[in-house]
Each structure stands twice: as C-alpha cells, then as structure tokens.
C-alpha cells in the first residue's frame, strides 16, 4: 500500500485481505518494486476515483512494471478535516493532503477559503500537522488517521459528493487462473496505427460479441519522445502517440474474450493483457 498507517489505502488493503499485514510505502513505485523484489506478496493501489478520476501515475506504472492484476476492490472514501487539539476551523489558513483527496474535497475547501498544499499521502499530512504542532494548518485524511496521530476531527464527510468511491487494484508477481464461475473483468493496454475509424474498429471487436467495456483511458506513449515523430496521412509530423487502457466485463477463460482479443491483435501495433480477475460486485 502507498501511504503511512491511517491512509485510505491501508483500509482498502485490509478490506481486500482482512488477515494481511499492511506494509506502508512512501511512493506508488515503491509498492510496485516491493512486490517485484518479493518483499511483499501483493500491492493494493488506487487506479480511479468516482470524483477525482483516474490516477494516471499508476496507469503508467502498470506498463513500466511486469506485475499482474489479480483483483479489484471498491472502497468508499470518507474524508475528514483534521487539526491539532484546540484548533478551530476559523484558525486554519492552509490544508495538506494528497492531490486526489484535495480534488475530491474542492467545494468544501474553497468555501472555507483554505490554501491547498499537496503532499504524498493523506496520513502523512495528518502526521506532519501533529508532529509540527501546526495551529494554522489542517489535514484532509481519515478518521483512523485522526486517532493514530492524536488530531481532532473538525468536520466529517467533506468530499464533494456523499458517494465517493475509489477503485483499487490488487497486483501480484504471477497472474491468477481466470474462471467462468463468477463475474470476471479483464484489463488490457494496446496501441494502434493512426487512421480514419481505427479506434472504432478496435472497440467494435467487443461490441460484436456483446462484451461490455467499463472503461477506456488514453495515455501518451512516453517513449515516443525518444524516436522520430513520423508523419501522418496528410504529411504532417506526428508528436502525439497514445496507448489505450481498457477494462471489459469478461474472463479470459471465455471464448468470446479470446476471439475479441485475437481480432484486436490484428488491428493493434501492440497488445498486453494486464490481468483477468474477479470483479468486485459488492457495495463499497
């Protein structure tokens, strides 16, 4: 998990693996590396939030590292405004938290007139406010972080919408065996040559088989800056090359999913299966 004890990632990890011993990592990449180095068995990392959107850093790290998605968990995030004991809301001038948490609480923080400062994680923000005994600075973090670091909860549920859900991925060194005994989801990343209707043709391989795409995300192909930009059909230089990340509701054990990916591979310049894993169908 990324973040200190009391971070939302810790709660998500315990929801995913109730008997696990969470190991805090200071950065997302550190968590990937810990799994690869066999220091931990799994990484539980956020990939998207219902208010703040995608966590792009982790999309990029999925491609850079060779870990496999073996599960997902949906976790309802409830943010609190924390401060040292005796500090009131009107005393605050600034608030610290992870960029995603700040984005998810934008309306409340704007209404309070607080300057926002991004830090590596929510629990780390709470710990810093407590250790430095700050009187004009609060933190956006969990109620668990308030208890761990001895802070007061000035306000609860300060996220912009009551339904604030983060989807976490469970990552492992080896893939799991996909089945058909329960709902499965498959995540892939692919690239395409540019051309009229090429993306439409790529997505049609799923529609033709009644496979539901739950997400598609384009990200810049980062290494393209190391190569010649090339030219497009009109003779203009191309500077923007994209990868497409997609999730779809099907198991790699199903014939429809296999046939869809076979057809996609004919269109794609590259294709990688990031994981086929049980879908989280529970309430967050």
From TrEMBL:
Domain spans labelled ACT: 187-278
One Pfam assignment: ACT
Signal peptide range: none
A cellular component annotation (GO) from this entry: chloroplast stroma
Pathway: Amino-acid biosynthesis; L-phenylalanine biosynthesis; L-phenylalanine from L-arogenate: step 1/1; Amino-acid biosynthesis; L-phenylalanine biosynthesis; phenylpyruvate from prephenate: step 1/1
Catalysed reactions, semicolon-separated: L-arogenate + H(+) = L-phenylalanine + CO2 + H2O
Gene3D superfamilies: 3.30.70.260, Periplasmic binding protein-like II
GO biological process, alphabetically ordered: L-phenylalanine biosynthetic process
Protein's cellular compartments: Plastid, Chloroplast stroma
Record key words, sorted: Amino-acid biosynthesis, Aromatic amino acid biosynthesis, Chloroplast, Lyase, Phenylalanine biosynthesis, Plastid, Transit peptide
Function: Converts the prephenate produced from the shikimate-chorismate pathway into phenylalanine.
Protein name: Arogenate dehydratase
Origin species: Linum tenue
Organism classification: Eukaryota, Viridiplantae, Streptophyta, Embryophyta, Tracheophyta
């Amino acid at each position: 998990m990324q973040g200190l004890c009391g971070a939302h990632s810790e709660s998500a990890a315990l929801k995913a693996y109730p008997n696990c011993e969470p190991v805090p990592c200071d950065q997302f990449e550190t968590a990937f590396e810990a799994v690869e180095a066999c220091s931990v068995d799994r990484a539980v990392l956020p990939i998207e939030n219902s208010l703040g959107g995608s966590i792009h850093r982790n999309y990029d790290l999925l491609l850079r590292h060779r870990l496999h998605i073996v599960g997902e968990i949906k976790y309802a995030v409830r943010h609190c405004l924390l401060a040292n004991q005796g500090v009131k809301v009107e005393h605050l001038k600034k608030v610290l938290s992870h960029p995603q948490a700040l984005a998810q609480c934008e309306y409340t923080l704007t209404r309070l007139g607080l300057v926002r400062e991004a830090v590596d994680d929510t629990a780390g923000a709470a710990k810093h406010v407590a250790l430095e005994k700050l009187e004009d600075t609060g933190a956006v973090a969990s109620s668990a972080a308030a208890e761990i670091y001895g802070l007061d909860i000035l306000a609860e549920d300060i996220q912009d919408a009551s339904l604030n859900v983060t989807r976490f991925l469970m990552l492992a060194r080896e893939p799991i065996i996909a089945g058909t005994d329960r709902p499965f989801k498959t995540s892939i990343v692919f690239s395409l040559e540019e051309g009229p209707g090429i993306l439409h043709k790529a997505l049609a391989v799923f529609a033709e088989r009644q496979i539901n795409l739950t997400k598609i995300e384009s990200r810049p192909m980062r290494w393209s800056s190391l190569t010649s930009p090339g030219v497009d059909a009109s003779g203009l230089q191309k500077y923007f090359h994209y990868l497409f990340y997609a999730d779809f509701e099907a198991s790699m054990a199903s014939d429809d999913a296999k046939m869809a990916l076979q057809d996609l591979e004919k269109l794609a310049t590259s294709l990688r299966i990031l994981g086929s894993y049980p879908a989280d169908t529970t309430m967050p």
